Amino acid sequence: MSPSSNGLSGLGVSLIRVSDNQLAISGDMLFASATRLRSEGQKLIPGMADRISVDLSQVGRVGSVGISVLMCWLRMAQVLGKTLVFVNAPDDMLDVSRVSSLDTVIPFSS
Q1: What's the whole-model pTM score?
Q2: Which candidate, 2, 55, 10, places its Cα nearest to that of 36?
Q3: What is the DSSP string of 57-104?
Q4: What does the angle CA 22 – CA 28 – CA 31 come to, to the nearest 5 degrees?
Q5: Can you list the domains of the chain with their CATH numbers?
Q6: Phi and psi for 99 in degrees, rounded to 5?
Q7: pLDDT tens for residues 15-24?
Q8: Cα(90)–Cα(1) distance, integer angstroms
Q9: Are 91 and 57 in contact (CB under 8 A)?
Q10: Which of 19, 89, 98, 99 is the most core-located residue (most Cβ within 10 A)?
Q11: CB-based contacts of 8: which residues, under 8 Å, 6+ apart?
Q12: 3-class DSSP state for residue 17?
């Protein structure tokens, strides 16, 4: 399957379905794009494999709303019986998750 992207690029962020078991985010995960980003992920996750990795290596700036998006996707995946793993998180994202005490809840992996 070839990568497919969405209409988020005008908001400074893109969510790409790389394969049946991988998503990739690129750009800034800030307030302006959070609702659309969350919605796009919620459309993609149900039709994907049981274990999904989300590559965060191309994420730029991150606010607490970016962590909220990851939490929404994580809850949805759990309800669907899927496992979501977030890989290559930038230091800023890890710092925001630590400040909010969610670093032990969100499955970050290197």
Answers
A1: 0.88
A2: 10
A3: EEEEEE-HHHHHHHHHHHHHHHHTT-EEEEES--HHHHHHHHHTT-TT
A4: 110
A5: 14-100 (3.30.750.24)
A6: -60, -35
A7: 999 999 999 9
A8: 27
A9: no
A10: 89
A11: 14, 15, 27, 33, 36, 37, 40
A12: strand
Tell me the residue type at 1. M
At residue 50, φ and ψ (nearest 5 deg) are -70, -25
**Contact yes or no for 41/15 (Cβ under 8 A):** yes
Residue type, 8: L
Helix (H) or strand (E) holding 40: helix 31-44
Q: Nearest-5° angle of CA 51, CA 52, CA 56? A: 150
* pLDDT of amino acid 66: 93
Question: What is the structure's pLDDT at 20?
Answer: 97
Q: Which amino acid is located at 110 in the chain?
A: S
Residue 39 is predicted with a pLDDT of 96
- Bridging pattern class, strands 22-29 and 13-19: antiparallel
CA distance 86 to 73: 11
